[in-house]
UniProtKB/TrEMBL annotation:
Record PANTHER family: CYTOCHROME P450 YJIB-RELATED, P450, PUTATIVE (EUROFUNG)-RELATED
Protein name, per record: Cytochrome P450
Homology family: Belongs to the cytochrome P450 family.
InterPro entries tied to this protein: Cyt_P450_B, Cyt_P450_sf
Gene Ontology terms for molecular function: heme binding; iron ion binding; monooxygenase activity; oxidoreductase activity, acting on paired donors, with incorporation or reduction of molecular oxygen
Amino acid sequence: MTDPKTAEPAAARPQCPARSEATRLSGLEYRQSPAELYRGLRRRHGPVAPILLDGDVPAWLVLGYREVRHVTSHDELFARDSRRWNAWPAIPADWPLLPFVGHQPSVLFTEGAEHQRRAGVLSDALGGVDQFELRTTCRRIADTLIDVFAGRGAADLKAAFAHPLPMLAAVQMCGMPPGGADTAGLAEDLRISLDAAEDDDPVAAFGRVRERIQTLVRAKRAAPGADVTSRMLGHPAGLAEEEIVQDLVSVIAAAQQPTANWIGNALRLMLTDDRFALDLTGGRLSIDQALTEVLWLDTPTQNFIGRWAVRDTQLGGRLIREGDCLVLGFAAANTDPRIWPQGHVGAAGNSAHLSFSHGEHRCPYPAPQLAEVIARSAIEALLERLPDVVLAVGPGELRWRPSVWMRGLTALPVRFTPAPSARIGSPG
């Protein structure tokens, strides 16, 4: 990670944007109903709005669908290497967003031919995952998790099901032994890194994530297997150990928190919306509709930091200065009224959302398909095992996690008729 003190000096550059007109991305009301904030920012500023990040660090929030696509389609104007940022002199060493902004030797920050090389290794390694086998694995994991609470007649589906399932699936894909202390610790440190509470240390948590993945990579170098990590180690591109560690951190982080929230948000939709609740066990079509609609209306990755302007340019009527930071507002862009003039956001069959980003730096193929297999398999298993599951509280009592980056519930309490155990063994 780049030390802000050693980053390229930027004192002579114009700072982005004017603090007097910027809006802080904070506040409980916003975090519960971010759509209200996005609407207000659009009214005042248009498709690109001045914002303040943690510690009142200025940046731009790209709200418009066309503008997000433009930014993500033009790496020559809006690049991923964060060392370009003109705000580094003002960033403290313990800044909460530093794990995701400080430059790292990760595929996330590479550009041009180097990005193509690194992304190609990831795509090849993920492409080796048998999706039918993954579905079987996810069903086995789901049954094991459900067995823990099936006989109780009640559960918090977020903590007991949606949160652990994608982590168990991801670590098995990557070759980490499931069910151990390392897996549980990895899941908790990823949560802290992505969605830190007041007393959490996201920088330290991110360091522990990296250490656990480094241990995995060294173990797989000594004893390779049929897993993503081993395929990355054996790839002809010849990635260094540090490169593989960093890229695996990105893969597992993307597989865990966003997929967990995708599962939880889709279940919330199906349990609160009559269109789904009237036919809760209606099969694959209803689940697919819920998963797609959530990506439009409650996408797990609400905002993503970021892109950095390569030179002075115009975007959405704003002058973006060289080195300015742009936050990609996927949630706002997906609900942009300019692309939904009739208000029918997320119409059936439309998958042109930006929830997996866009352009060269979008989620590498086939990561979105693997995430969908995990999410769909999880919900199918739950509804088959607990067909009469209903919310244990009123829909208005459900609360969203206080994060400007991830969209997910704090809990999803449900009740159901107690069911017998599937008795299928361990989660691995």
